[in-house]
Amino acid sequence: MSNTPWDPQNICEMAIASQENRTCCGRTAKGTSCQNRIKLSVIQKGHQKLVSLGGRPLDLATLELSLRDIVKSFLCVRWHQSQQYNEVAHRWYQTVVHHETQLSRAGHPSIPPSILVQLSEVDPTD
Ligand SMILES: [Zn+2]
Asked: From which domain of life does this come (predicted)?
């Protein structure tokens, strides 16, 4: 089966929300959404990176690393950019894997199902 295009912007819903409100997608210590604003130019850069990520075939081996870089554009410099990018990137990564699993069940995976099987065996707390 050939690779179908995937849309990281759609999958990473938090990025979309951040783009619209231009607020950080980090979480405060109380567990609520951070309301700090992010510069439009920074958000736009992150948006462009997501677009270019979607232009390449989905590669789960490097995805989380790519997301870590992109996620920084959606986190406030003051609190979350240095502290939560790992966590948020991991959340987005899980969302993509979940999305792919659904596509795979529907018979339209962007990546070979065998890779998803391997992933589901990975300890999610890692
Ligand atoms: Zn923040």
From this structure: Eukaryota
